[in-house]
Amino acid sequence: MTVSCVAVDRERGESVRERLADAGVLDGDHRIEVVDGTIYLPVTDPAGVPSDLAETLVDRNVDERDRPRTPADLLGYEPSLERLGDIVIIDEDDDGRAREIADAVMASDLPCATVLNRASPIEGDLRVRQWDVLAGNGTETVHREYGHEFVLDVAEVYFSPRLATERHRVIEQVAAGESVVDMFAGVGPYAIPMAARGADVVACDLNGTAIEYLRENAERNGTSDRVTAIAGDVRETTGEYAGSADRLVMNLPHSADEFLDTAVTLAGEDGLIHYYDIQHEDDPFGPGARAIRAAAGDDYDVTVETERVVRSYAPHEYNVCLDVRLSKR
């Protein structure tokens, strides 16, 4: 059957596949083919393909895929699942239903080594939660995102695969030669791809285990020479980088405002802050913009370049991002 496909070099296949999946146009009903070093990725809607990939579209005869046996096929209903590497995460209060879903996941054709159920909310300064291991025997995995690999332990560090598209949006803005400070870096999902684009990145986190994983991930992704990983409170560990940052990432949405004085101190002559916040739908961007202006004082002109709702966080509350430029007066 003739279908539209994105045709790219095989080496780009995984990163392009992830982008097509994020755009909602990856065709799961037809086989992905590799011929002479070119990978052909079927798409459902050519008009929905990211613009920079539009010129790679071709029509090709490809076979239909054998439909895999899914957890829904076995359960008779569609469970809510989240994938993180080879871990499947569920969120069920009923123990019996949770184990029923875990058994179906393991019996299905879904690639999976471990099934976890959330056992607590995100807690403490390190933003970690408790887990019930329903199948498998570990909480460590390797997550792949836009061509990069991140090894992490979900019981020891914070990581959200749901933010992949937002991270990619920010990362694509980075130019070679930039000086970046990622103030709450975790295992490196911002820092490492930014370094891969040629930036020099100072990556900080209060969670020492996250910093250990970040160093391992920098090595794994070939960016160790451009990532400086620092364990500890960014307010206490980055004095030598004052006035150096072309770009700052502040992904600590519940309390980023408490670190704005440090962000302003780190900013260079002309710097961009990616400031994440959680606010009520009535005024999702105002509190963040006002806090940044107050911290900048008379030293900087403040320009809000982008206001973006990242996702719904709770009823009537949004997780938002403000891209804010500070220009030295």
Overview of the structural elements:
The protein has 329 residues and is of the alpha/beta class. It folds into three domains: 2-61, Alpha-Beta Plaits; 71-138, GMP Synthetase, Chain A, domain 3 (2-Layer Sandwich), CATH 3.30.300; 160-328, Rossmann fold (3-Layer(aba) Sandwich), CATH 3.40.50.150. The chain is 23% helix and 34% strand. The protein has helices spanning 13-22, 71-75, 95-107, 164-171, 191-196, 208-220, 234-237, 260-266, 286-296, and strands at residues 2-9, 33-35, 38-42, 57-61, 82-84, 87-90, 114-118, 131-135, 140-145, 148-153, 179-182, 200-205, 227-231, 245-250, 267-280, 300-314, 317-328. It has a seven-stranded mixed β-sheet. The protein has a four-stranded antiparallel β-sheet with strand order 2-3-1-4, with helices on one face. A four-stranded mixed β-sheet has the order 5-6-7-8, covered by helices on one side. The radius of gyration is 21 Å and the shape is globular. The termini are far apart. The mean pLDDT is 95.
The major β-sheet equals: 7 strands, mixed
CATH H-level superfamily of the largest domain: Vaccinia Virus protein VP39
Q: State the CATH class of the largest domain.
A: Alpha Beta
CATH topology-level fold name of the largest domain: Rossmann fold
Radius of gyration: 21 Å
Number of beta strands: 17
Low-confidence stretches: none
Q: Provide the domain count.
A: 3
Q: Using the 3D structure, state the CATH architecture of the largest domain.
A: 3-Layer(aba) Sandwich
- pLDDT averaged over residues: 95
The portion of residues forming beta strands comes to 25-35%
State the helical fraction. Answer: 10-25%
Q: What is the string of helix and strand elements?
A: EHEEEHEEHEEEEHEHEHEHEHEHEE
The helix/strand class is alpha/beta
N-to-C span: 62 Å
Number of helices: 9
- Inertia-based shape: globular
Strand line-up in the sheet with most strands: 13-12-11-14-15-17-16
InterPro entries: MeTrfase_TRM5/TYW2, SAM-dependent_MTases_sf, TRM5-TYW2-like_MTfase, TRM5/TYW2-like_N, Trm5a/b_N
Keywords: Cytoplasm, Methyltransferase, S-adenosyl-L-methionine, Transferase, tRNA processing
GO cellular component, one term: cytoplasm
GO biological process, one term: tRNA N1-guanine methylation
